[in-house]
User: Fold Multidrug export protein MepA from Lentibacillus juripiscarius.
Amino acid sequence: MFSDKMGINNTVRGEMMSLAEQRLLNQSVTKSFFQYFLPTLAGMMLMSANIVIDGIFVGNGVGSVALASVNVAVPAWSVIISISLLIGIGGGTVYSIANGEHDTDKAQRIFTLAMILATIVMTILGIISYIAVEPLARLFGANAETLPYAVIYMQIIFLWAPILAWENVLSIFVRNDGSPQLAMAGLVVSALLNIVLNYWMIFILEMGVRGAALASVIATAAGLLIYCIHFFKKDAGLKFTRLSWRKDDILTVGKLGFPNFLSEAGTGVFVIGYNIALSYYAGTTGLAAFSVINYLHTFMFLAFIGIGSSIQPMISFYYGANKYDSIKNTVKIAEITGIALGVLFLGIGWFGAGGLVSIFGVETETIRQLASKGITLFFIGYLFMGINFIYMTYYQSIAYVRPSIGITLFRGFILLIAALAILPAWIGTAGIWLALPVAEGLTAIFLMLFARRNVMNRPLQSRGY
Assistant:
């Protein structure tokens, strides 16, 4: 009778488990990793394709100055995405840990809090930034030629900031709730629609950069609608609940999401730093060359973000469930994947630089040569980037954020800014292209020499949230 009762309880528990719990408790780490990683990678590639498509259409349909102007406006995206990641990754980490502990009430409470915080913060930020758009554009590196285009593009992005934030936050929670395929589907729809709308608005309606910005917003809204399908699944764990404003919840979400906030903010620093350095050493020609490389960088960069996005729900869940060997195996598989992607991207850059530059409609041979040379040097950084994101995500996912913040600050701020200040004065524009590889490489070498040994051999830190 006792065994029958236990069997009934286990059956009931199995019926109550979300899809994420069922997968991570019953499958091998390798199978779970690729179930998260493959659709996440495809989704991230499509997301980055969205951004690259803007560049291709703007470069070919409006011109190199407009292309440089849209690149100047990239930090506007970084501001919105960084805050979205602060809320989404922070909330998603707590959500997955709570699911690992079988605390459904807490998981649903955190999800509700994250969506409401995103709404409030992005509405306020969007209004303020829309009003102050011209000073912001100048801060981001706009000059007299690029300012008018940049202002138009940024006004539209800031006006619709809440929609962009909802899409980003909800995609994280959908992935953490065991539906990476749906998260990918939302990005597929968004990318395809963005292609159609970019062509229509830039070449047919001749709306220029305004059309590019509107295409991105509308395509993002379509992706958001796709994610909402998740709420109708019977095994979905995501549910809105009565909101209770708990200070501890807000602080925990902010604390665990802060490394991603810094990382995305570092993207803004990266763009601004490169814009300033290239404007000083190479003028508008340098800005146009960097705009090509930055569009390509977004494509590669998001692949490594995809690795982090794949292992975060896994590590957080395993941590909540006290499955420490599974965490270490997840890190090992991610390391191999990150290094393999880095080698692939480096090969693409070295052997295909000319072809990559040509698709953006570059108008002059000077810009083409500068961008091609930049690609061969800049892409060296991808050999190291995966390692840095894996360990940043690992520490964040077990709620031990200080090392994660340290990794982010050193690779994205301290070392990068120092390299941009020192290397160009020493070896010219080649030093600008090598600044990111130097920052990523030094960080990765330190992590492999010191952090990896601790991760693999020492017991995990106790929960710090």
